[in-house]
Amino acid sequence: MKLSKGKFYITTPIYYPSDNLHIGHAYCTVASDSIARYKRAQGYDVMFLTGTDEHGQKIQRKAEAKGVTPQQYVDEIVSGIKDLWKLMDISYDRFIRTTDEQHVKAVQKIFNTLYEKGDIYKSEYEGWYCTPCESFWTPTQLKDGKCPDCGREVEMTKEESYFFRLSKYRDKIINLIENNPDFLQPASRQNEMLNNFLRPGLEDLCVSRTSFDWGIPVTFDPKHVVYVWLDALTNYITAMGAFSDDDSDFKKYWPCDVHIVGKEIVRFHSIIWPAMLMALDLPLPKQVFGHGWLKIGGDKMSKSKGNVVDPVVLVNNYGVDAVRYFLMREVPFGSDGDFTNEMLINRINADLANDLGNLLSRTVAMIEKYFGGELPEERETGEFDDDLIDLASHTAEKVEKLMDAFDFSNALAEIWKLISRANKYIDETMPWKLIKDESKKARLAAVLYNLAEVLRIVGELIRPVMPNTTPKIMEQLGCEEHGWDSAKEFGVLKNVKVKKGEALFPRIDVEKELARLEAAKPEPEKPAEEPIEKPEPKDEITIDDFGKLDLRVGTVLACEKIKKSSKLLKFQIDFGYEQRQIVSGIAKFYKPEDLIGKQVVAVVNLAPVKLCGEESNGMILSAAVNTANGEELSLIAPIALMRNGSEVR
Ligand code: MSP
């Protein structure tokens, strides 16, 4: 029995139940899983937690749109999410649902404790709320009047609410981030939090809602439900039994070693969560790691854009380990990165089929061909051995350093350096020449042994990221698994008896495959059929008021993104009698090149304004609606082609 190196508690965010989690969600979970597997392989007693975040207005609205209860809605989706994690080989130890009774009770106790301590108090909330993000914003935090995280419309909310005294913890949190650089990683996220949120001043946080009821009721004031983020963040301790009858796991595993989260939710994890724990007098997590986003052609994935990549399709096409490898290899973990089918296929062909797959198949084939599958004990060292053995013996050390820093991409790159070195070693030692000389048999045996041993080491090192490939390599090498630490030693393999198997990763015909994928691309999702709620009536206007607007048809001559902004497009529009520049916040709905030549309708007598340093002389009109899936928007244009400058009346 190996002694445990101690405990290691790692969490993913708990996912909003959505019927199609995409490759971006899988990215976050695969990364966490790779760490969990790596730590287990090193001998840690690992607790790997994931789960689902099931309360809130967004879920309630989605359930209503489907005509089912919120509970029915989430139950069905959660089982789909569990299936996805099974497919992606996610080795979680515990799965928490925020609808679990233990969690619900614990959240109620936490809310009561904070209330009794005076850190939660009752007042009235009036402010902006982004339903898709379930976030409150102050007017200064809004960007162009919209949610600064997702760019969607926000809603003015006014209701009696409970507040958490977040402001009280501002200095402590600043101190925490400034003086414990490990707490928030990568380091770039520290300045983001300090400059964007903490230094400008923290306001108390509204932590209850009364306008909907799909949430955890406040026990002493049940018309209030607990704010979803307060509910959600506590999952990391309630899943361990905190505030329940059996809190032994909480005592064992808390504080958490690392919360892995995407960059847009770092704010909740590095400000609100530590403040809550401080208020509860509980230890803080050791680290929050905010990874970047996986994007499509520089865009965020979204159903309405029709650009979401389905991990199920990828896994069914290429196998789970190829997808896991790609996710962990392609993008440095703290940064944003792009996903394209072409990049995935190229990686599979180059790194997996060519480099790794060929090394294994050539080695095994040569051992079979030259020695009938069994390597003799008599071996003779020779030129090139030292270099290969030295690299093989030190790769594990380098991989450990990189994995400890969650630098998966470079950790895999180190392993692939060893694979490339071994492929080069074959060319250098030329076994096909050695076999021709009977006196070189012992030398040939040594060459093939060294290759088999490198493959064994590689097999051990890739296991956290590619758990299904390691057993296949070991099987072909006819060897037992020796565990992570054995990757630090060279010469572990004893009686080498190989067995040829299938190619680890078949080569893919890039062009054919890309054409096939293009043909199978999903259509962008049709606008949701939810009825639009009756709007608050606006003040009545007279025909004269309306007549003050000068609305004109124009044709887009040029359109480009404004570099400093992710939202704004700059248009040059031909109104027939003149051309003018208008800036419009619709960058996330249209690609500039798709709009050139299109007719639009604009208000042309609006006072000019400067947006991101660019003058805007008017406003282009669009139809827009907020749905549970986000904002939908379409530019307004005349049904028939009209002369530029035509009046809209
Ligand atoms: N429910 C909250 C988390 C509460 S944790 C106490 C939530 N859920 S989520 O389903 O929207 O997102 C879960 C995770 O997936 C987040 O870390 C998010 O950053 C990540 N990703 C979602 N899309 C992503 C990409 N396109 N790329 C990388 N990660 C992304 O937020």
Structure, explained:
With 649 residues, the protein is α/β, with parallel strands linked by helices. The protein contains 21 helices and 23 strands. The protein has a 6-stranded parallel sheet, sandwiched between helices. It has a 5-stranded antiparallel sheet with strand order 17-16-15-18-21. Helix 12 packs across helix 13 and helix 12 crosses helix 15 (408-429). The longest helix has 31 residues, at 341-371. The mean pLDDT is 93. It binds 5'-O-[(L-methionyl)-sulphamoyl]adenosine. Residues 13-16, 24-25, 27-28, 53, 232-233, 235, 261-262, 264-265, 293-294, 301 line the site of 5'-O-[(L-methionyl)-sulphamoyl]adenosine.
| Portion in strands | 15-25%
Main sheet: strand order: 3-2-1-11-12-7
Mean pLDDT: 93
- Report the principal-axis shape: globular
Return Rg in Å: 29 Å
Structural class designation: alpha/beta
The separation of the N and C termini measures 83 Å
Which small compounds were modeled alongside the protein? 5'-O-[(L-methionyl)-sulphamoyl]adenosine
Helix content: 40-55%
Keywords:
40% helix, 21 helices, six-stranded parallel β-sheet, 23 strands, alpha/beta, globular, 649 residues, binds 5'-O-[(L-methionyl)-sulphamoyl]adenosine, single chain
Give a brief description.
With 649 residues, the chain is α/β, with parallel strands linked by helices.
List the helices and strands and how they pair.
Blueprint (H helix, E strand, L loop, with lengths): L6 E9 L7 H20 L2 E8 L4 H10 L3 H18 L6 E4 L3 H16 L3 E11 L4 E3 L17 E10 L5 H10 L4 E2 L2 H11 L6 E2 L1 E2 L15 E2 L1 H6 L1 H4 L9 H6 L4 E5 L3 H14 L8 E4 L2 E2 L15 H8 L1 H11 L6 E2 L2 H31 L13 H20 L3 H22 L1 H4 L6 H22 L6 H9 L32 H10 L23 H5 L3 E11 L7 E6 L4 E6 L7 H4 L3 E5 L5 E3 L2 E3 L2 E2 L1 E6 L2 E6 L14
Parallel strand pairs: 1-2, 1-11, 2-3, 7-12, 11-12, 13-14
Antiparallel strand pairs: 4-5, 4-6, 6-8, 9-10, 15-16, 15-18, 16-17, 18-21, 19-20, 22-23
Helix pairs in contact: 2-3, 5-10, 6-10, 11-12, 12-13, 12-15, 13-15, 13-17, 13-19, 14-15, 14-17, 15-17, 17-18
The structure holds 5'-O-[(L-methionyl)-sulphamoyl]adenosine (MSP).
